[in-house]
Each structure stands twice: as C-alpha cells, then as structure tokens.
Amino acid sequence: MMNTSGRFAGQKALLLTPQLRENDTHCVTFHYYLGGRDSSHPGHLNVYIKENNSPMGMPVWNVSGSATRSWGQVELAVSTYWPNFYQIVFEAVTSGQRGLLAIKDVVVQGHQCMNTPHFLTIKGVEVNAGQTASFHCTVNGRKRDNFRLWLQGIGGREAPMKATKPWNNRRFIGTFDVENTTKGDSGRYRCIVHSDKGVGVSNYGELTIKQPPVPIAPPQLTAVGATYLWIQLNANSINGDGPITDREVEYRTVSGTMYDLQPVDKTTHKIGHLDPDTEYEISVLLTRPLEGGTGAPGPPLRARTRCAGEVKHTITYKAPLGFEGTCA
C-alpha cells in the first residue's frame, strides 16, 4: 500500500513477485484499490510482465481515475512456460493528490482464467527492411465482442489487429502487421488481449529485420572489345545482410536510353551485343532470401567499348574506365 499524500506527482513505488516458472496453463489474480476523498485522483497503477531477464517493456494493464473506495479484481493469463520464466511488476505512480494505492492477494491458480483467454506460443518473424512483418496469435478461447487485441513491442511500437479467423470452435487467430519495417523495428513482440476482467499476455516472439545487400565496390573491368565488356563482379564485400542467393548485372548507356538487366551465376561475366565506341555504366545487384531481398545497385563502373574495325590512333587504357581513344 502506498500513501500518496504529501508526495510529488510522478513518484513511483514497485512491487515485484518472485520469478514464476510454470509448466502448464495457470491464472494469476490480484486485487487493487484506489482510495481517497471524493473526486480525488490519487494516481495510477501499472502492471508489467518481464519474460526471463528482459527489460520491463510496456505495461500490459493499468488503471487510473477517481478514487473508488472498493477493491477490484484482475485476471492475468500469462502464456510463458518452463523453461522460460516471468516476473510480475506492480507499479504505483503518484498524481500529487492525497489518497491510497494498494495491491493485495496475488494468487497463482492452477487452472485457466475464467474470463480472460490465453495464447498459444507465438513464433518469431524475419523480413527484409521495408516489408510487412505479420504475426499470427492463436487465442485459446471463443472470440467475444469485449475482447481487444493488439501487438506490443518491447520498445513501444504497437500494431492493431488486422483480421481474425476461427481456428476451431474453441480457438481463433488474430493477425497483426508491422508495416514499412526498418532496422529500428527489430526486437521482441507479444500479443495482448484485454477482457472486462483482465488481460492475456503471450510469450515474446523475435522480429528480425534484414537489410538487403549492396556491394561496397564497383565491378572491375577485365577485357574490352568492340561489342563486349568482360567484368569481375567484385561483390564479396557488402553493406547489408546475406546470404546471397542471386546476382544480377545492370548496365545502361551513359548517353541514350538503352538499359538491360542480366542474371549472373559466376564471379565473372561477359556483357555482349554492345555498340562499338559507346560508354556504358555497369552495376551489380545482390539478392538475399525472402520478399524484397534485392538491394540497391552497387557503385557503378564506367567503361567504353572499342571501335569497330581497325584503330588508327593510339589506344590507352585507364583502369577502370576501359577504352579511351578516337575511332577513325
């Protein structure tokens, strides 16, 4: 119990349970109290669920408002099981007004909650940056109109429920999309469901955001003809993530509109059917698994094809630009 009288707004008190290592469905119940004079607002109570040794993350349940002078009961349907463990953290935050905030009778019951559903274990998701990550949360209970579901990230990002579909007559699945993902969205996410009597909390699933690969260096020119250019991809060093599943060579004329993209299965590649005495810009594109896995083109190489027929003037080579000279 915390007496909020004489305290500044924003002061906090924490009550932590022991680490709970449950190996079957169970329900945690507790009673809470907000007391004070009529129309006073003594503060608010937050409940956090820490899985293993993770940070506290975001609250899964909270209450605030006017003093009620009566005890309320809350169910916590926590779906974290052995060998994982969790800890419940009760947080009282003062408002600066007089009153009492209290918690009592924290009980672990060896059966499912009566009014709040549990989740089945959720799995992690991997996507490439810029894509949509979809989490599927299976709720062990019939869908009710008073259920409110969302996806909660440990760093604060949330996603509303996109859709639900029945799994059988006792379960349904909620789908949640984390859109336009960036590396900053990587981390742990869990499903939350609120009922009139409490809150259901799933385990955490890891969201892994991979960056499509981009070569650090331009390709290297190895041979020049009037209608072809031989290059070495030079794409072993990359920015982004592997593994590399596909390679492509993109080339275009420096002056004009000619453009082509060719798949490559070796570290060297011949670009043929080119125009003589024409300058081209050549880049390498790399692809990793999953949708959206193709990175931006790497740094370009500029190279010019030789003249057609006999060359009557001196030819010089300035790596990596290729042929330089004048065709007669």
UniProtKB/TrEMBL annotation:
CDD domains: FN3 (cd00063), Ig (cd00096), MAM (cd06263). Keywords: Disulfide bond, Immunoglobulin domain, Repeat. SMART domains: FN3, IG, MAM. Pfam families: ig (PF00047), MAM (PF00629). This is Receptor-type tyrosine-protein phosphatase mu. Gene3D superfamilies: 2.60.120.200, Immunoglobulins. It comes from Champsocephalus esox. InterPro entries: ConA-like_dom_sf (IPR013320), FN3_dom (IPR003961), FN3_sf (IPR036116), Ig-like_dom (IPR007110), Ig-like_dom_sf (IPR036179), Ig-like_fold (IPR013783), Ig_sub (IPR003599), Immunoglobulin_dom (IPR013151).
